[in-house]
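Q: Structure tokens for this one, please.
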Amino acid sequence: MDLTAHLLSPEPLGWLASLILLSTIARQIWRQAHAPTVEGVSKWLFIGQMAASVLYLVYSVLVKNPVFIASNAALLVAGITGQFIYLRRRHEQEKGVHG
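A: Here is the predicted structure, written as tokens:
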């Protein structure tokens, strides 16, 4: 594929959209990791995100789209990270209340 054809393909838009989405989610996870409580955060947010990411990842592999494969794999990792932080914070809160 020559440069002109590559620049006119929709893939650069997909990568840009993915970068924007992953940046916003990374920022939210960073904020959550530094928040003292899990107040206002639902465990179902990350459970739903992980379930959707797994399904989107399978779909992306089946249609062989590298933008979606990379994006959805990264979103799955983000969901797992968010759930881990949520559970750790909730445990710390419960321990502080009962300990």
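A few notes: The radius of gyration is 17 Å. The chain has a mean pLDDT of 86.
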